[in-house]
Amino acid sequence: MSMEQPGFFKDRVLPIITVILAILAIWHVFVVVLNAPFERDQAARAGTPITFMEILPRTFVQERPVLPAPQQIVVELWDTTIDKAITSKRSLVYHTWITLSATLLGFAIGTVLGILLAIGIVHNKAMDRSLMPWVIASQTIPILAVAPMIIVVLNSIGISGLLPKALISTYLSFFPIVVGMVKGLRSPEQIYLDLMHTYNASSAQTFWKLRWPASMPYLFTSLKVAIAISLVGAIVGELPTGAVAGLGARLLSGSYYGQTVQIWAALFMAAGLAAVLVTIVGIAHASVLKRMGVRP
Amino acid sequence: MMGYLIGAILFWILAWAFNEWLVRQKFRSFAANRAARIAVPVLFGVTILVLWEGVVRGFNIPSILLPAPSMIWARLIHSVPTLWADFQQTFLKSVITGYLFGCGLGFLVAIAIDRSPFLQKGLLPIGNFVSALPIVGVAPIMVMWFGFDWQSKVAVVVIMTFFPMLVNTVQGLASTSAMERDLMRTYAASWWQTLTKLRLPAAGPFIFNALKINSTLALIGAIVAEFFGTPIVGMGFRISTEVGRSNVDMVWAEIAVAAVAGSAFYGVVALAERAVTFWHPSVRGGQA
């Protein structure tokens, strides 16, 4: 282990840190370049000459910058998460929770539906032949375009709040799971299926003792894609409701009122949330495979 | 009114039974087998439409909730000029431009960092991470920077398509085996020759995988970016305003256009893949 550490640092951590630092450096340059015209404009209006050295520090503290400095975003994140009560509508934690709950509900429904459909497809030839081409074709359709309509239509029949957004997440997360699970349930080789046959196993026994365990790696790979896309669905689902609550609403209201720092803070929060969710699925993946005795 | 419903359900049961019968058949000729393979999903699609029409008419569902397919079709035929203008704005201007720029840029950056393992190790995990993020969220920022017209949508599409292309190309370029690379060395091939004659062709399946993923992402990015502000034309704009005016049949017509455009785009990329990577086992085996 002690032999591995320096290599791990040099091979994995160092390159990533270098690239991140490079991105931050480029970011700072762009902050100056993009925000300077506003300061020059202000100075020209006031009729006072302004030097570049005077402009430089001001570009990092503008209230509505074209590109906010990273530290402004961090301050905004701190203000809206730590300094505000969680129940406050100005707290980013509150909005994140709204989006997260829709994401998780949609993801759960999508996973259950996807697995059930995959089981049907694997066990019934007619379902396989008639459904599978449509499942694949549906992935080529920009289904997010339907989001506003689902929200408004469900609203008009009295379903509002969490469920419509969750349904969009369901719709998006459902396809990767069907495709992955069909592949996974079919992954046992003929020789194992024949073995189950010689044991006189029923099709339920074959399913629980062979197909289901064999499909786990495929399931978790799909789950990672599905949870990321569920989050996208929930965020986009919040756009047409007219900016009430949630990360998508923060994006929309930020863009209405030109609050760029708010947009970026919401964006970073969404990115962090996606990272946490994918990591949790990844940990679940590793622990399930470990319990099943799979060696990496 | 109930007649429609009963008719639709009868059609459903008959079509299901016919499909069950069809998948059990083994025809003598190759062509008949192929036709049967295509007929099953087509029949399923038709059944969905018939059932949809029957349920809408049978239960008298108001068209504001769910218009019947026949109504959507009528609307589609009547508003071809509007739909065409939206299609031009969103698909031809935003999607295609952004897709070409994003994929091209991802490809070029992947080639550029090919000689630096250090940069690859730094960029790959970040690229993979960014691919999982809700990038659509940059749409409001891009609209602020590049204005309401199609340029801002191009920017969103470029950002969305860049990372999948970068990650896949880098992986594809690394996919040749040491033996093949050694062979090129024994031929005294330069880096450039090895790239064009061995590594790029070997990366083909990976690159086309990214192109396929991106074809869907590009359309989603352009449509969602239009929710944040557009001139008065475009598919995303039309969808959000017609929803507001409760013209649900127009929304469905627009979705139908988006679906056909998305599938056709994907289909073209898939055909190009078959033509270019004809040597790959997945193509030779006759499975996509």
UniProtKB/TrEMBL annotation, chain B:
Keyword Membrane recorded: yes
Gene Ontology biological process terms from the UniProt entry: transmembrane transport
Entry's transmembrane regions: 6-23, 35-52, 91-113, 125-148, 154-174, 217-239, 251-272
Entry keyword set: Cell membrane, Membrane, Transmembrane, Transmembrane helix, Transport
Location of the protein in the cell: Cell membrane
Superkingdom of this protein's organism: Bacteria
Record CDD domains: TM_PBP2
ABC transmembrane type-1 domain ranges (all copies): 104-276
Any Pfam family hit: BPD_transp_1
InterPro entries according to UniProt: MetI-like, MetI-like_sf
Membrane topology designation: Multi-pass membrane protein
GO cellular component, one term: plasma membrane
Protein name, per record: ABC transporter permease
